[in-house]
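At this stage, I needed to go through a protein sequence along with its fold in token form, as given directly below:
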Amino acid sequence: MKKNLFREKIREKIANDALQIALDGNADRRTTARVNAFAGIPDHKERRQRAHAIRKDIVDHLDDYVQQFKKKVEENGIKVHLAENADEAMQIFMEIAGQHDAHLVAKSKSMVSEEINFNHVLEARGMKPVETDLGEYIVQLRGERPAHIITPAVHLRRHEVGALFHEKLGIPYTEEIPTLTNTARRILRDVFLEADIGLSGINFGVVDTGTLCIVTNEGNGRMVTTIPPVHVALMGMERLLPDMDALSLFLSLLPRSATAQKLTVYTNLINKPRDANENEGPQERHLILLDNGRRRMSKSSLKDSLMCIRCGACLNACPVFREIGGHGYLGTNGSMAPYPGPIGSVVSPGLFGIETFGQLAQASSLCGACKDACPVDIDLPKMLLQIRYGQIQETELKPGHPPEGTALGSPLKLGLSVYRFAATNQKIFSFAQWIGARLSRLVFPIAKWIHMPTWSGWGLSKDIPHPAASSFHKQWGSLEHEEIGSISKLEPISIPEDIGSPRPSMDLKEQFISELEALGGRCVPCKRNQVAEQLQSLISEKNIQRVLVDEFSRSLLESSDLELVRSSDPSCKVGISHAVAGLADTGSLILIGGPAESLSASLLPETHIAILHSRDLLPSLGDVINDEMIREASSAVIISGPSRTADIEMTLTIGVHGPGELIVLLVDD
């Protein structure tokens, strides 16, 4: 009999105690934090339905939206390349690399790059792609694929990362997570500065403005799109939104679902390459729009899976993923699915073949937790059942037949017919239940004792409950009437009067300061005539002389003894920039690129000091997202606290590729 690699891998993962601890820790923290994050937006159910409708419209009219988006992006000066498949995408990238004699590629997180085997192809051609996301960097050093859409190294514990860094990077063995993080920061800083090309994924593309949106916490997404002379973006063509208002909506859902944040630390909005009068940013930007089966899938029964925004919430909620992790999802040929978990069990068969990956649909309890967790309300259980049942036709997707066991065979059809007959007759069903309850007490212990080889391993790890000895109807009917009647005599629960009543509202300034400090930022209020003095005082605390500045802060400090640097100098320990707006509900800053601005001042130094006028405080992102200054800037960034990561054992560490300290000088006008 042919060996089932999928089942073998499941057994292997379930038996791995370290993996079980790591996956349990991830799931517990992620799911709890996600619930708490959404508690802050009472209308999240309405937002979810609006998001569903928007993404469904995109998928239903994918070709039209792609053409509109392509036209607008090209008008902005970004070169757009349509790739029908993985080979075309890699050929396009290699042509771009050849034009610039590129050898080193600094790469931020991109699931599409995993889909097209980007790293493997480049390495085979003598180039050096380096993952710069901490989790991705760890799995690259191990020669593995990411084990999770959001947390690539979720399967590893700190001692494994410590041993890896000791072996591969030559540092003394340590399990101190800040030390491990600082090591990666130090090594990858040179990669950012020396890279010929920066490559990124794209979270959202905005059709009516041609804006590319990237969300990241560590700062590597900003690095690869700001420092190297050429930026290439890889994007699945379905990752579109119609306008900036829709982007504002999705930015309220994606971070909460993915990492339980109101906004990620950096929300990068890219409109075009740098202008001739700007002194920072890539001179050339490219966008590779990948099809790779998406158009065909958008016309199939699995099209709703293209609505996914890659938040990873379904993975965290899934009881099967919690046991086997991302590396447990194997195709019939033994290859790992690029996309794991519930969404991967639909997307992987849809994009890469039912014959190879259709068996992944069996790795689901169909409990519906994935649908409940999805921020755009994708009905994943329905599509998983369609794949299991063999309803997905080979003409809908790639040529091939459903894998063995997908379609209903004669024994299963007979069994379901017998069950239907019994379930529609109360006496027969009760008798069958009585027989089953007694047989189970004999069969289950024997099956476990002999370790039945045909089992997948799930029943050996999870206790299968015995059938009830008597029916629910019989149990309920045996209750005394007095017991039932006593329920109505219970004393009503008293609810405090203040529950549900609106809390006293804070003004914008108070709210902004509260949210900023909750993110780990520091606010220093000052009067307008005290800004220069306060700046010098903050800089003197650092005992430094060289400061990276924009034009606004340079004018404030030009009479000082400080050396003011306008170019992107990584040796500067402090950077000062002017924020054009502040968001009270998230404690965020908005900075824009331009001739007088310096986005690198908020990115390269260890400490970032931002000057924000209180008159520029706004309630939320929706109040500024359509502003002309954002739409016309070559790029803009929304900053929410110091850079951070939790890629090692879900342990929060402040200061990764971006600044570890954020100070906001809030000027009272």
Summary: The first helix runs from residue 5 to 14.
